[in-house]
Known about the structure:
The chain has 126 residues and is α/β, with parallel strands linked by helices. It is 40% helix and 24% strand. The chain has one domain: Response regulator (Rossmann fold, 3-Layer(aba) Sandwich).
Amino acid sequence: MNRQILVVDDDPQILDVMKKTLEQALDDVTVIGCRTVKEAQSVFKGSDSVQLLVSDIVMPVETGWELIRWLKTQGKFEKLPVIVMSGYITESDVTYHEPESLICGFVSKPINFDNLASMIKNQLKK
């Protein structure tokens, strides 16, 4: 069974590296990449099969926080696990900002892909 994860980051190079690295590290996983919150919302609206979101928090126009808040209003994705990443905030900032959140993990940039792949594997097992 092929599982889908959605990665949102405004940097196209990071998206490309994440897609290649994660698909190589994780069996049976397809990575969908989006550069904006609007693109991610379109993917969610057209799919029932996204099983995990990995999102940058600090992005121009709309932030990862706004995407997470929007997800909580979507019936089919209101409990979707989310791993957030940032080079600007810390894990304690995440807990403070979204204490009642879908967030199940935090990754600081630069990204440790072994760590991220392990987090994703653990979430997909649940």
